[in-house]
Every structure is written in structure tokens, then in C-alpha cells.
């Protein structure tokens, strides 16, 4: 018993070239009506499309060719070759959730039950298109095609898909996506081939399943041919859009219409409902909030730092020219006030030659002692005069620094030929 709806060809016929014309059968259905096919269970015809199952759980739908088909040569066990092709779609239900392990199985493809499963008296041959992995029947995956003989345990199975060409990689096909696929099934010379591909694609040369198989003990002289399907707890609609069968013409499948077919794919959710979009927006919003928080912290700290600096300023700093230069920059420019950089000595301190970090400017640095009132007055005098005045004949004051418990420092533009010494120290 299968938990997911299935499409299966329960029994299929066979022919040899010496067969009488009364045994020949060929038909093509590019649309369906109640007079052309027999319906059972929940199977219906909707807009000329054969619909085997609907959104009813634990239900069965079956559609068969109205009469039995002769499958063996007269007075012989030899099975007549046959070829069939059909176009199908598995239309997913909006609430469908594939691959739920452990769900109880349903109606055994609408064909068998646990009592007769595997019984050789079933005389059943089917090709299953299964979208549920049922451990009970040793399914290989939740999206596979298998050959069944009198049992729901497949003789051979393969994941659904196709090879575009012999030397190209296998392309998997998700059967319960609502997309439309075409299937070809041929039997001749004890060889069964099952091929599938998206509708409209030329039949791939390499079949999905290729198996040596003698159906003489499976088939009776006359058999029904058709489709059966079932739903379990998880439901979806199985639709047959076209079907051909022949035991005389293996190219009859070319008569199936493959263009202008309806779509059964569920409409995609708006982008704002898609998981990827939601995840992306969540991550993006988190990053924006994080960056915003970091910027806010930086601005707050920067504002607090400036506030502290202003609070630390003395009245004379605000009155004159508060262009501070950090002690670290001055220390680096003068190589820690190295004696080799001394270019002059005055009563209140030394003058050093230096290069500001980055090599941006050559400067003269005057270090004034903080221990006597004369030094403080000289420091304030320089700031109040040179700090406010700009003239080509005056030495340019770049800035100043007041080192705690140390000294006042003035930074000037450096002038060549000793003129700086004379202007600063009066030498």
C-alpha cells in the first residue's frame, strides 16, 4: 500500500509480425471523453483531461481502455510486442509536504493489498511513478520510476529523470512539481525500455530503465491496459493529458500533441513571502541595526570626548586659538625631543627641528618650561599674536600643546637659513 498517489500501467500487450489483423490495435487520445475510456473510483474527465485523483485523501482512481487486448500470439506463449506513450502531470496540492518518513501507506496504488501483494496469480505488470519512499516496499527514493511484476516491490527502479544524450550528465526530474512530462514504454524481444523527459523534448536515446524481461508467465492471453492511482494522507492530482498505444506501430507516439498544454504548477508566492527573501531581509536588517548601533556608539563617544576636551580647556584656550596638536605627534616629529634635532636654545626652553608624521610638513618646535611665570606669559603671547595673524613676513604658528605637569609647546612652520632662531629667540 502506497502513501503517495501513483501512476501505473498495470498490464500491457505484445505482438509478432505474423499476427492476424484482428489482433492489431492502435489508438491515440489527445483528449478524453467518457465513451473512449472506462473510469473507476475518483477518476474523472475534466476539460478533456483524464484526472485520476483529486484532493481527497485515501482514495483510488482508475482508467482503463474499454476492452481487453490480446497480448499473446494465438496458440503460443509468445508475448506480442507493444509500444505506449503518455503525457502526464502530478499537480501538487497547496498543503502537500513531500518526503514525510513514517507516514502510513495508503491504497496500494489502487491495485493490490497486503494479502495478494507478490502473488503470481495477479498477472500484473506495471510501471510505477512514485513520489513517496515507502520502506515497506523497498523504495529507493521519494521520486523514482520502477518496474513492478505482481508486486509493489519493484524489480528495478531509478530516480526520475533523463539523459539528454549519451555523453551528457543525468538530469533529475521532480515528478510532483506540476510540470508536464512524457513517458515512452516499449517491449520487444524480451526487452523493456522506459524513457521519460519534459514534454516537448525529443525522446532521449538512452532509456531510464532498460531491462531483459520475459512477460510470458505474467501476461494472460487477454489483458486490460490503463492507469491506476491512489492517495494517502498526502494528496495530489494525477492527470493524463494524452495517450497512445500500439502493437503494430512503435512510432505512433509521434501523434501525441505536446504543445499548448495547460500548466499545473502552483503559482509562486510573492517575493516577500519566500523563505530566501525573508532570510535575506532578516540578515540585512540585522546588519543595518548593527552598523547603526556602531555608528551611534562612535558618535556618542566622539561627542563625549570633545565635551571632555572642552571641559579640560582653560579660559585662555577658548579666548585665543584652540588649535591643539597631540603630544604624541610632536614627540614623533622630534624623535622624542632628541638633542640632535636642537636648533636653538632660549631662556625659557629649546627649539627643535622636526617632521610631522607622514612627512607632511617640516616644523620648528619650541618647548617652554611650565615652571615659571615668564614661560607661561611667553606662551600666551605667542598664541595671542601669531595665532591670530597671518602675514608673509611672520613665522606661521601651526599649533600648540600643553603637556600635563610638563611644559608648553609651540609648533611653527620651519624657515631655512637660521631666520627662525632669530625671530623666536631674538639671537
TrEMBL record:
Residues in a coiled coil are none
Query: Which SUPFAM superfamilies does the UniProt entry name for this protein?
Result: Concanavalin A-like lectins/glucanases, Protein kinase-like (PK-like)
| Keywords, comma-separated and alphabetical | ATP-binding, Lectin, Membrane, Nucleotide-binding, Receptor, Signal, Transmembrane, Transmembrane helix
Q: Which GO terms fall under molecular function for this chain's record?
A: ATP binding; carbohydrate binding
Bilayer disposition of the protein = Single-pass type I membrane protein
Q: State the name under which the record lists this protein.
A: Protein kinase domain-containing protein
Q: Which organism is it from?
A: Cinchona calisaya
Give every Protein kinase domain span: 337-427
| TM helices/strands, residue ranges | 7-29, 277-300
PANTHER family assigned to the protein according to its UniProt record, in alphabetical order = PTHR27007
Q: Which coarse location class describes where this protein primarily resides?
A: membrane
GO CC annotations on file: membrane
The family database entries (InterPro entries) matched by this protein are listed as:
ConA-like_dom_sf (IPR013320), Kinase-like_dom_sf (IPR011009), L-type_Lectin-RKs (IPR050528), Legume_lectin_dom (IPR001220), Prot_kinase_dom (IPR000719), Protein_kinase_ATP_BS (IPR017441), Ser-Thr/Tyr_kinase_cat_dom (IPR001245)
* Residues reported to bind ATP: 366
Q: Name one Pfam family in it.
A: PK_Tyr_Ser-Thr
The UniProt family comment states: In the C-terminal section; belongs to the protein kinase superfamily. Ser/Thr protein kinase family.
Q: Which Gene3D superfamilies match?
A: 2.60.120.200, Phosphorylase Kinase, domain 1
GO annotation terms (biological process): defense response; response to other organism
Localization terms from the record: Membrane
Q: What is the annotated signal peptide range for this record?
A: none
Amino acid at each position: 500500500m502506497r502513501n503517495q498517489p501513483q501512476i501505473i500501467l498495470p498490464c500491457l500487450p505484445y505482438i509478432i509480425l505474423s499476427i492476424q489483423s484482428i489482433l492489431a490495435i492502435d489508438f491515440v487520445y489527445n483528449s478524453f471523453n467518457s465513451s473512449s475510456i472506462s473510469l473507476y473510483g475518483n477518476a474523472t474527465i475534466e476539460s478533456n483531461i483524464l484526472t485520476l485523483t483529486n484532493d481527497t485523501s485515501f482514495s483510488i482512481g482508475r482508467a482503463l481502455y474499454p476492452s481487453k487486448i490480446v497480448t499473446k500470439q494465438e496458440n503460443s506463449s509468445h508475448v506480442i510486442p507493444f509500444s505506449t506513450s503518455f503525457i502526464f502531470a502530478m499537480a501538487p496540492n497547496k498543503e502537500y509536504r513531500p518526503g514525510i518518513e513514517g507516514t502510513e501507506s495508503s491504497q496500494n496504488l489502487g491495485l493490490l493489498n497486503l494479502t495478494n501483494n507478490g502473488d503470481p496469480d495477479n498477472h500484473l505488470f506495471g510501471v510505477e511513478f512514485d513520489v513517496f519512499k515507502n520502506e515497506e516496499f523497498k523504495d529507493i527514493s521519494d521520486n523514482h520510476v520502477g518496474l513492478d511484476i505482481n508486486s509493489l516491490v519493484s524489480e528495478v527502479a531509478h530516480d526520475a529523470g533523463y539523459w539528454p544524450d549519451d555523453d551528457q550528465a543525468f538530469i533529475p526530474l521532480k515528478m510532483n512539481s506540476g510540470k508536464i512530462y512524457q513517458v515512452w514504454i516499449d517491449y520487444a524481444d524480451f526487452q523493456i525500455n522506459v524513457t521519460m523527459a519534459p514534454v516537448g523534448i525529443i525522446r532521449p536515446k538512452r532509456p531510464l530503465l532498460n531491462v531483459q524481461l520475459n512477460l510470458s508467465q505474467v501476461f494472460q492471453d487477454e489483458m486490460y491496459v490503463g492507469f491506476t492511482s491512489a492517495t494517502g494522507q498526502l494528496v495530489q492530482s494525477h492527470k493524463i493529458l494524452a495517450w497512445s498505444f500500439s502493437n503494430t506501430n512503435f512510432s505512433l507516439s509521434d501523434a501525441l500533441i505536446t504543445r499548448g498544454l495547460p500548466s499545473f504548477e502552483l503559482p509562486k508566492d510573492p517575493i516577500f513571502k519566500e523563505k530566501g527573501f525573508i532570510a535575506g531581509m532578516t540578515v540585512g536588517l540585522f546588519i543595518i541595526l548593527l552598523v547603526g548601533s556602531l555608528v551611534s556608539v562612535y558618535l556618542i563617544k566622539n561627542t563625549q570626548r570633545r565635551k571632555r576636551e572642552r571641559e579640560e580647556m582653560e579660559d585662555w584656550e577658548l579666548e585665543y586659538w584652540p588649535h591643539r596638536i597631540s603630544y604624541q605627534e610632536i614627540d614623533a616629529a622630534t624623535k622624542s625631543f632628541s638633542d640632535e634635532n636642537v636648533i636653538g636654545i632660549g631662556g625659557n626652553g629649546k627649539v627643535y627641528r622636526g617632521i610631522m608624521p607622514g612627512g607632511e610638513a617640516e616644523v620648528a618646535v619650541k618647548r617652554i618650561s611650565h615652571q615659571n611665570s615668564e614661560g607661561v606669559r611667553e606662551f600666551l603671547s605667542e598664541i595671542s599674536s601669531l595665532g591670530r595673524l597671518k602675514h608673509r613676513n611672520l613665522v606661521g604658528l601651526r599649533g600648540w600643546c600643553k603637556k600635563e605637569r610638563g611644559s608648553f609647546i609651540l609648533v611653527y612652520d620651519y624657515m631655512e637659513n637660521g631666520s627662525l632662531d632669530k625671530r623666536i629667540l631674538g639671537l
